[in-house]
Amino acid sequence: MAMAVAHHMESSSGSGSSISKHLDAGKYVRYTAEQVEALERVYAECPKPSSLRRQQLIRECPILSNIEPKQIKVWFQNRRCREKQRKEASRLQTVNRKLNAMNKLLMEENDRLQKQVSQLVCENGYMRQQLHTVNASATDASCDSVVTTPQHSLRDANNPAGLLSIAEETLAEFLSKATGTAVDWVQMPGMKPGPDSVGIFAISQNCSGVAARACGLVSLEPTKIAEILKDRPSWLRECRNLEVFTMFPAGNGGTIELVYTQTFAPTTLAPARDFWTLRYTTTLENGSLVVCERSLSGSGAGPSAAAAAQFVRAEMLPSGYLIRPCDGGGSIIHIVDHLNLEAWSVPEVLRPLYESSKIIAQKMTIAALRFIRQVAQETSGEVVYGLGRQPAVLRTFSQRLSRGFNDAINGFNDDGWSIMNCDGTEDVIIAINSSKSLSSTSNPANALSFLGGVLCAKASMLLQNVPPAVLVRFLREHRSEWADFNVDAYCAASLKAGTYAYPGMRPTRFTGSQIIMPLGHTIENEELLEVIRLEGHSSALEDAFLSGDIHLLQICSGIDENAVGACSELVFAPIDEMFPDDAPLLPSGFHIIPLESKSSDTQDSLTTNRTLDLTSSLEVGPATNHAAGDAPCQNTRSVLTIAFQFPFDSNLQDNVATMARQYVRSVISSVQRVAMAISPSGLSPAVGPKLSPGSPEALTLAHWICQSYSFHLGAELLKSESLDGDSVLKNLWQHQDAILCCSMKSLPVFIFANQAGLDMLETTLVALQDITLDKIFDESGRKALCSDFANLMEQQGFAYLPAGICMSTMGRHVSYEQAVAWKVFAADESTVHCLAFSFVNWSFV
Fold first, then answer.
1. What radius of gyration do the chain's Cα atoms show?
2. Gap between the Cα atoms of 135 and 525, Å rounded
């Protein structure tokens, strides 16, 4: 009996020991500080180690030898879970802070709107009362919310006391606009407020001048925001120069500055604007920081009368920035821009550019808030850029490209620009800057100067019913449709050591492919910075193994079709493959600004879907009064400005000018063709060249060319199966030989060419009609043509021309094995319609 009891006790003891051991294996393990430190080091390198890595960790770290691999696995799982919870909590706190700040803004906006409604109700009641009085007809109780800016005499601005009085009035008026009801604000179309939006945006309605307002949350301190916004050239692309003439402290701890500001003109057909303003910086009792500004009366202010001669003095009504610190960090900022841009001084067709609050909102107000938020995100490390470049460096590249392009468009005299042989009738303006060099402010060693200087060919045109965003996207993605690779190569050669050649001296064949390599973008992708690589191969045997690739630094903006009033821009400059941070830039490109349609603006001369040169509709002075019965114009319009810059040597100035003018005209023709193609309503039959591929006239001429060739030479120009119906034009267009037709005038001009002919002359169908027959042949070619002209016109009706050399519109030499010329008869086979030429086996020399 005792033995049985003892045996039972031993069995119970053994069973309890195994249970205890099992519980020890699964219970919570309390790690020492040394063990946690070792695990944290591994977690920093690899948050999710494999089974082999965990076993290796136990072997290499003696302090972890008493811990099971399964328990280490659980520790890493818990650590990842805690990290995820921490990040989520941090994100929720950020979102909550943003929502609280946005809620505060919306409540303030709601209070302002309620005040505005009450004010309108009172004004409405007052008007009703006045209508019932005897003197109602003499009383003007307008309900428009108009801000009246008192004109201050120069006497008031000549002493600090007078300036302080003006500053206090400016502050009061600015605050009434930023948070009050002094302006009738309406929500900016397409810019709805929300937790993910940049801010709340509004534009003026029934207000003198043009005005825009924005408010939003920014994760920067008020002093930093004020410092950035006061440096207007750093973020406002249209700001050319800002100079503080006088600065003195105000009695309340603030500062008063007298500021002279110059802005660029958006197009070649309008003068630039400048401002003479008082800027007042102060702190309110609630801790808010205010920077407000307004124009001072008088037009004589500025660095010199000569410098201001190219500008029209515009007026800045009380505007500025109200910056309030937030409890959880960051700031709430209110921005107001209120301007009178003196629209009377520009052609009537351009006045919407200066009368649109939407354009001011996009160019100034929204741009300022976006820039502040961009800097805030870069400071916090949220923005990642490519190619190892610092955000500030890439931002500087964008600013330099935009500024260089605006400099070329405006061509200010004090920068050294002068117009070259312009009689006022040219569609393309040629400007010369003999003193300009591709310089870098930080490293003069990288500066490139030329014996001649820089030449700019520029033009402006009106686009009708063409979405700017769609056009810019097309120009960006299909560069080969409008650009000439050899012109790009010529500009790129200026960046390389040694002399560069005139286009055509070192021919390069463009493969047609371009590679877009993104560098960076703004927070809402409204602007892209990228490097474009154009793949090319040299046509010369001795250069066959050299890379013919060209690299361009490019900014593209305004490609969002839903952005109301946004300007679209594509600006690029050739760069070296390994361009330094201070690489010299020579920008060229396109700038498109939308024009708002007005019910009173009918413009009978502008038909639907038409693209015009703006010089055909220029009129400066009072607006034209249209008849009341005119129908409102429903078509959208925009202004396209093109500017291309070319370096040149002094002995090649005229050649480069001719090339530049022809090239820009060619680009304009290509843009017109693209614009017509992407127009929502399609191509108007009255638009474009009469002999564009696919038109009935081109099809008829194609039949006449083939029939006349067969009649004169007894052979078929095309295969017999290609002579049916519409296929004649298609096969003639794709023929390998260059086929061209010229008119039967005293000075023959070309009226048609197939694709090979356009490639040989390096032109377009539109520009083709400006080329005369004598310009494409050299001296020997002209002699051969004259010697066989009798056979061509009178006897045989055709002539074989020997091998020779002709010239493209870009100045490149083209060789051909043989040329055939024949008369093209019309349908009656008795009337000579034109002369046709076929250049066999042509190639660039």
1. 36
2. 58
- Residue 585's identity, in one-letter code, is L
Highest mean pLDDT: which range of 5-14, 128-137, 455-464, 611-620: 455-464
**Helix (H) or strand (E) segment spanning residue 665:** helix 653-678
Nearest to 211, CA basis, from 350, 356, 40, 410: 356
Cα 97 from Cα 105, distance rounded (Å): 12
Cα 200–204–208 angle (5° rounding)?
150
Asked whether the beta carbons of 311 and 414 are under 8 A apart, the reply is no
Instruction: Using alpha carbons, select from 1, 374, 338 the residue that is nearest to residue 202.
Output: 338
Task: Give a three-class secondary structure readout of 340-399.
Answer: ECCHHHCCHHHCHHHHCHHHHHHHHHHHHHHHHHHHHHHHHCCCCCCCCCCHHHHHHHHH
What's the pLDDT tens digit per position in 176-228? 998 877 888 888 876 665 555 678 889 988 888 899 999 888 889 999 999 99
One DSSP character per residue, 8-30 reads HHHHHHHHHHHHHHHHHHHSPP-
The count of residues in the chain is 845
**DSSP one-letter code for 151:** P
pLDDT cut 70: percent of the chain above it: 71
- Whether the pLDDT of residue 501 is over 60: the answer is no
From residue 127, how far is each of 142, 321, 566 by CA, in Å? Answer: 8, 35, 39
Closest to 360 measured CA to CA, from 174, 203, 242 = 203
Contact between residue 757 and residue 765 where contact means Cβ atoms under 8 Å apart = no
What is the C-alpha to C-alpha distance for residues 389 and 802, in angstroms, rounded to an integer?
58
Q: At what angle do helices 366-380 and 391-410 cross, to 10 degrees?
A: 150
Question: Kind of pairing, strands 272-283 and 311-313?
Answer: parallel
Q: Of 201, 181, 174, which is closest to residue 121 (Cα–Cα)?
A: 181
Instruction: Collapse the DSSP code of 843 into the 3-class scheme (helix H, G, I; strand E, B; otherwise coil) and give the result.
Output: strand
What gap in Å lies between CA 404 and CA 406, rounded to an integer? 5
| d(C-alpha 233, C-alpha 236), whole Å | 5
Output the pLDDT for position 547: 56
